[in-house]
Amino acid sequence: MATAPRSPRGAAAGSDFDVTRFFADLKLPAMPDLDALAAANRRNMEALTAANRVALEGAQAVAKRHMEIMQQSLAEMTEAMKALSSTETPQAKAAKQAELAKAAYERAVANLKEVGDLIQRSNAEAVGLINQRFTAAMDEIKALAQKT
């Protein structure tokens, strides 16, 4: 008994196979809204750019303040050397040295705290911008998923 020749797709010749119905029945997910996707990516890049700008401005502020602290320290050291070179008694010089060392230490700690606070504020602002965009992006994804 002879069989009917098969088509290259494996269906018998003359069968009622409908390619259009086959793909319609697959229930493929809908294509995402490409305009919305492009807009979301643009907003992501804008948020990253803003966060990078904030971080750079913070780094510049830290560097500027650090330079001011160094200049202030050099001026104070020059004044301390002048004060110690006077013709006082050894006991008075020792007391003056202790006083200058204590003041220098307190300024150094205060300056360190100030620079640390500058860095922390800058980082918090940059991370805040990224967190805001992440939250908005998740809301956008949820809305797109509900739309399709």
Which labels suit this protein?
mainly alpha; 148 residues; rod-shaped; 3 helices; 78% helix
Strand-residue proportion: under 5%
Q: Helix/strand/pairing class, anyone?
A: mainly alpha
Mean pLDDT: 84
The SSE order reads HHH
Regions with pLDDT < 50 over 5+ consecutive residues?
Answer: none
Shape: rod-shaped
Structure description:
The protein has 148 residues and is mostly helical. The protein has one domain (35-147). It is built from three helices and no strands. Helix 2 (34-84) runs antiparallel to helix 3. The mean pLDDT is 84.
Secondary-structure blueprint:
Blueprint: H1 19-25, H2 34-84, H3 90-147
Helix pairs in contact: 2-3
Produce a short descriptive summary.
By secondary structure, the protein is mostly helical.
